[in-house]
Amino acid sequence: MWNPRFGLFPPFGAVLTVRREGKGSLLVLEGSYTPPGGVLGRLFDRAIGKSLANRTMDALLQEMKHYIERRTTP
User: Fold this and answer.
1) Which residue(s) pair with 19 in the sheet?
2) Which residues pair with 39 in a beta bridge?
3) Interior/surface letters 4-35, b for 16+ CB within 10 angstroms, e for the rest
4) Which of 21, 17, 44 is nearest to 33 (CA)?
5) Residue 2 forms beta bridges with which residues?
6) What is the rounded distance in angstroms from the CA atom of residue 26 to the CA atom of residue 47?
7) What is the model's pLDDT at position 74?
8) Per-residue pLDDT at 44 exceeds 90
9) Are 49 and 11 contacting, i.e. CB atoms less than 8 angstroms apart?
10) SS3 state of residue 61
11) What is the mean pLDDT of residues 38-51?
């Protein structure tokens, strides 16, 4: 469970799965959170927050990919 330093972000629980796929690997990050702020928080999440969370997860996976590739490339 990731707990944010600032109250604007919700705690985030996730599972990272790594599996072989062809000659490479596949990283899958599945997680969930409950938006803070009650009804307004849920409305914000539907309008903007969920998209931000997905882009953040995609960026994290890209960073992990580049890190792994740098360490494994001769």
Assistant:
1) 26
2) none
3) eeeeebbebeeeeeeeeeeeeeeeeeeeebeb
4) 44
5) 12
6) 29
7) 63
8) yes
9) no
10) helix
11) 94
